[in-house]
Amino acid sequence: MSATPLRIALFTHSVNPRGGVVHTLELGRALQDAGHEVTIFAPSVNGARMFRDSPCRIVLAPVDAHGNDTVSMVQMRIDALKAALRDDAPSDYDILHAQDGIGGNALAELRQEGAIRGFVRTVHHLDAFSDPRLIEWQRRAYADADAVFCVSDTWTRRMLKDYGTAASTVSNGVDIERFRPEYAGNDTKALAKFGIDGAPVVLAVGGIEARKNTLQLLDAFALFRRTHSGGQLIIAGGASLLDHDAYTRRFVARATELNLAIGRGEPIVVTGALHDDEIPALMRRADVVSMVSLCEGFGLVVLEALAVGTPVVVSRIEPFTEYLNDRVCCWAQPDDAGSIAQALQHALDRRGGIDFEYAVPDLLDRFSWRESARCHIGLYRRYAQPAAA
């Protein structure tokens, strides 16, 4: 196939600042910068705009507000994406690329109906569902794809071993212009908003979730506070489509048991969803960023924190062990609060011994969105075809 520009449609599950949505926007921008024409499709509740501006064309698929019924919510978003693509001449696209199960099912259904010929899918990670319909949706979104990509070798291997699906690893990226050590003009405003004046400040990004291991981090922070009584734990973000209410109630109850208040200016600050410029500001302010997750597809937060010059504490599990080492992070056992607390302390002692002069820049050079786009384009050209039968 010639090296002519491709028309690419990317599908994401939300307009909110979540890892998969960020990945979609950054990949779209890098593909556009490489000379391709990119449209991003996303469900939008009550006319909500994409949380970040993009040079790509954005198609918002209208979705009515819904309650906490996850199955209904997923079905509505699948239907919305199907309708949006039908109205947008799907045959004009060379590549239809779903970044998650919602987009994957929209495209799988359109393929079954004969409206498109095929699609590709990125699996960041897979969740453990109990509802049979969610389980089937998750399976179909990768099983019906012409090609599956993963953002780590860990998940590429797992897709083959556990799910019988051959996948290709694509590189992730980090925006070193957005995540840089220099303070920006709005940093002070962002910090004042949440009453962040602790010493030291521990930051965790991704909200309160079982997968993020937030309860274990809370216990570790309580141990950490025995020698750092002025410390604050900031839990940022959390714009998830899944229902984490029960886990959050357990978190609040455990914080009460530990006599750790939650609120603005308190030992624990839970920010909720953030404006786009607030995450880099919080990372710059933090003394250490903790990512002690139990399951991740890649863990882009780690690279973002290192890019701003903040030490990181990371679970000693795959995929982190795939691309990190002792020179760029402080390891912790995610099932051991004592291990996490010790790693937090280590990160404060001479910045954890992390080599920010040589090893970190070398790591960041390996993961650029430009390189991610180059890798995607090579894979796209294997599968590009007219979308309509």
TrEMBL record:
Record GO terms (molecular function): glycosyltransferase activity
Keyword entries, A-Z: Transferase
NCBIfam families membership: MSMEG_0565_glyc
Protein name: Glycosyltransferase-like protein
Occurrences of domain Glycosyltransferase subfamily 4-like N-terminal (ranges): 18-178
Glycosyl transferase family domain boundaries: 192-349
InterPro entries: Glyco_trans_1 (IPR001296), Glyco_trans_4-like_N (IPR028098), GlycosylTfrase_MSMEG0565 (IPR023986), Glycosyltransferase_grp1 (IPR050194)
Superkingdom per UniProt: Bacteria
